[in-house]
Amino acid sequence: MSNTSSRRRYTVEILEEKKTAVVVYIKKTKITDLIVKLLSSMYRVYEVTYHDPLQLPHTDLAVFVNVDVHDLDALARSKKQIFFLFFNVGLFSSFATWCKQHLTAYKLVHIGISSRPPSELLSFIIFKTPTPYVFDYAAGQDHKALHKKNSPPMQLSFKTMLVWLLATLLIANGIFYVTFGFYMYSLFNFSKRMPTSTEKLTTLIAQLKQLNIMTIRLSAIPRNTLFWLPGQGYVFAVLDTGNALVSLADDGLGFAKQYSSIVGLISKRNKTIEEQRELTLRLEDSNKEITELLASVDKAITAIKRVDIYFFRDKQKETLRRLLEIRDHATTLKTIQPHIASLMGKDGQRKYVVLFMNNMELRPGGGFIGSIGIIEFDRLSLSAFRVYDVYSIDGQLKVHIDPPEAIRAYLNQPHWFLRDSNFSPDFTQNSETALRFLKRSVNWDGFDGVIGVTFSGVQSLLEAFPNLVIADYNETVTSDNFFIKAQTYSEKDFFSGSHNKRNFLQAVLNALQVRLQEGDYDNLILAGDIKRSLDEKRIVVWFADEPAQTVMKQNFWSGQLSPPQCTTIATCVADYLMVVDANLGVNKANFFVQRAIHLTTKIEDQHIVNNVSLTYKNDSPETTFPGGDYRNYLQVYVPAEVQIARVSIDGVKSSYSQSVDGPFRVVGVWFTVPVGQQRNVTILYNFTKTLEANPTYQLIVQKQIGSINNDFIYEFIPTQEYSVEYTNFPNLVQGDRFVYNTFLEKDRLLLIRLQSHENSQP
C-alpha cells in the first residue's frame, strides 16, 4: 500500500446545539404556523396550547400569541425571553404596565394592519428589534425601520461642504480643548495630592496615561489648524510638560515595584542560588533604572520650565519643588545603591547591632535602650534576627564602669550599663560605647555596624503594614496603638531579667518579616517612611565600612554632631545650637511633653548676642506611670568661644554647669516640669569676636536624635550698623526683625548675609 493511500482523512463536524423556544397559543392559525416556521431557523421549537395551570418546558424563549396569561407570577420568576403578540388592543394595554414592572427581556406588540407582508413584519418584530420593545402597530405607528423611503441623491453645494468642514473642525477642536482641560486638571490634582498608596497610585497613573494618549492624539487637529492663533504655543508646551510628568510617574512606579521585589528577596531567609542570582541582577538593573529615572526627572524639569503662563506659575512652582525633591531622593538612593550588596553580605557574613531606643523616655542619644537586636546577613540573605532584653545583658556585666555625672547625680545610679549608654548626642560615640558594653557583658564582638531605631521610627514604619496581626498574642498592631501595646506587654509582670518586652518585640518583627517576604505592604509608604525616619533622626546608622559610612554622613543619617565652622566664606560668623534632653524620671513622660525652641539673634556693639528660650509643657494626665513629672537634665550645645551671660528658669536666675567638648560649649541645667505645668528655660550668651565688614552669619541648628518635631522660631534683629542683604530661608518681616517659624524635624543651616552701613552704596 502506498504512502498516499495509507493516509487517513478525518472529517470532524461540529454541531452547535440550537437554543429552544416555545410558542403558546389558544388556537392554531396561519399566524402561529408562520411564527413557528420563522423561529425554526434559529431555535428548536415546541408548541403548547394554553391552559391553566400553565406548565412550560425549559426553553430560552417563550412567545405568547394572543394569550391572556393568568399565572403572571410564575412567568415573572422565569429567566426566559418573553414575547407577547396580541391582536386584541385591550390585552395589549393591560399587559404594558405589568411587563414594564416585572420583566426586562421582553417584547410587547399589538399587530394591526400593515402594508408589509405578515412574514416580513413578524421577522422584523422577532429578530430585528431590541429588548425591551413595546409597539402598537394598530395605531398606525409603524416602526421607522419598516419604512425605508427612497430619497433622491444628496447634492452638496460648495457652501454646504465648507460649512460642514468648518463645523467639523470646530467640534474636533472643541473636543480637544475639553479633553485637554480635564487632563490638566487631573494631572495637577494628582501632583498636588499625590497618593502614597501603591494601589491608588497605579490606578491613577493608568488613568492619566489613557488621558495623555487621547489628548496627544487629539492635539494633531489644533496643531495643524489653529497654529496661527496666538497662545497656541503655550498650550502645546503645557501638553508636552504633562506628557513628561506622566512618563516620569510611570517610570517611578515601575522603579518602586522593582524595589519591592528587591526588599522581598532581601528579607527572605535561606535563599536558593537562583534567588541570589535574581537579587544580584535586580540590584544591578536598579542602578540603570535610577539613572533612567533621573533622566526622566530632568526632562520633566526642563519641560515645565519652558511654560511661562501667569495663571500657571503657582502650580509650576509647586510642581518644580516636588520634582527637585524627587531628584534629590533618587540621587540619594544612587549614592547608597553601590553599597547595598556588600552591606547585605554578598562577599561574606555581615553582623549588625540594633539598639531599640524608647524615645518616650528620651535620652541624649535617642532614648532609653530597652532591647537589643542582632541582625545577620549572609550571601544577600537575612540569616538571623534575634532580640534580647537589655536587662539580661546588663545582668552579666561583672566589672564596674563609672557613669556620666548626670546619671550618678540625678538617676542615683552608681554604675553604668548598656541601657543608659547612649548618653552622648553623637551616635557614632554611642555606637562605640554600646559595642564596648556588649564585649564586656556577653563577649560579643565582630560587628559591622550599629543601627539605632527609636519607638517613633518603628511606629512610622508600621504605617506601611496596616493591621499587622501578632498571632502569638492574638493582637492587631497599628502605628496608632503600638506604644500602648508595647508598653502593656513590657510592664506586665515586669522584673529585672523578664522577657515580656523582648518576646513581644520579637513577635512584631517576625510578623513584619513575613509581610515583607509576601509583599503584603505598601512599598511607596515604606520607602517614604524609611527616608523620613532617617532624615528626622528616628533611625540613625553607623557602619564600620568607611565608604558606606561616608554616604551616611553626607545624607546626615549618621547622627553625628556638625562642628560650627565656615568653609567657604572668609568673613563668616559660625554659630551653633543643639538642645539635648535627658529624661531621668524613670517614666515615659516624653509621650506627653511638648517642647518649643525660640532663638533670638541681635547685634550689640558689633557682637552677636543670642537668647535661647525653651518652653516645656507637661500634659501628663497624672503622676502615675507611664506619665509623671518630667525630670530633665538639659544640655545646650553652643560654640566653644561664646560667653554665657545668664541662665534662668521662669525668669529666675538658675544655677548651671558648663564645659567645653571640642568645638562646643555645653551648658547643663537640671529642672523638673510637674504634671500639668510648664517651665521656661532661658540662656543668654554672646560672641567675643567683633564683627567684620559685610559679614555672613551662619547658624547650624541640629535636632536631637529621637526628639519629637519641635516648634522652632528664629528671630534676627538687624541694627543701624548692619542690615540684612540676603537669607537662605523664607522669613517674615515683623517690625524691626526677620522671623522664621518652622518645625525642627531635621537639622537646619541658616545663612544671613549682612551689609555694613558704612560700606553700602548710597
UniProtKB/TrEMBL annotation:
The keyword Membrane applies. Keywords: Membrane, Transmembrane, Transmembrane helix. It comes from the Bacteria. The chain crosses the membrane at residues 161-185. InterPro entries: DUF4012. This is DUF4012 domain-containing protein. It comes from Candidatus Roizmanbacteria bacterium CG10_big_fil_rev_8_21_14_0_10_45_7. The lineage of its organism: Bacteria, Candidatus Roizmaniibacteriota.
